[in-house]
Amino acid sequence: MRHITQEGLDLIKRFESFSPTIYICPAGYPTIGYGHVVLDEEKDRFANGIDQELGEELLRRDAQVAERAILRLITVPLTDGQFDALVSFTFNLGSGALQRSTLRRKVNREEHSEVPAQLMRWIWAGGRKLKGLQRRRSAEAELYLY
């Protein structure tokens, strides 16, 4: 199975940032490390926090879900930068967002020059344009074209 590169992981880490303790993310989920959603059966395991090494291990495991979605939903060859950008996007928004998106159709039609504009459509949360999402999508677009 194809995996995200270290450059792609570093992009996710930059935007997710690291929390050694459980916090409630903006979507309302208990989260730890680099955006790992804590399942009910994990709460005791992570109650005393984690170190960055475990945080990166959880990130790699969580990224595999996004990697599998890309491999399932994208039918054309991708460069490492394209794959990494799509994994970051899918890690952030979930495979359902990619599955039903115009972004996916553009990628599968190999209309790669139109992908950055499609990524930049996904900068809204709760009806508000978020600067953090604008920066993330811009970084993903840059990596996609790299």
List its salient traits.
146 residues, mainly alpha, Lysozyme, 3-stranded antiparallel sheet
Explain this structure.
The protein is mainly α. The chain has one domain: Lysozyme (Orthogonal Bundle). Helix content is 57%, strand content 11%. It contains eight helices and five strands, in the order αβββααααααββα. It has helices at 6-16, 43-46, 52-73, 80-93, 95-99, 102-108, 115-119, 131-145; strands spanning 19-24, 30-33, 36-37, 124-125, 128-129. The strands form two sheets. A three-stranded antiparallel β-sheet has the order 1-2-3. A hairpin with a 5-residue loop joins strand 1 (19-24) and strand 2. The two termini are 22 Å apart. 29% of the residues are buried.
In short:
By secondary structure, the protein is mostly helical. It is built from eight helices and five strands. The model has no long low-confidence stretch (mean pLDDT 96).
Helix count from the secondary structure assignment:
8
Q: β content, as a range? A: 5-15%
The residue fraction in helices comes out at: 55-70%
Give the low-confidence spans: none
Q: Tally of extended strands?
A: 5
Write the layout of secondary structure elements.
Layout: H1 6-16, E1 19-24, E2 30-33, E3 36-37, H2 43-46, H3 52-73, H4 80-93, H5 95-99, H6 102-108, H7 115-119, E4 124-125, E5 128-129, H8 131-145
Antiparallel strand pairs: 1-2, 2-3, 4-5
Helix pairs in contact: 1-4, 3-4, 4-8
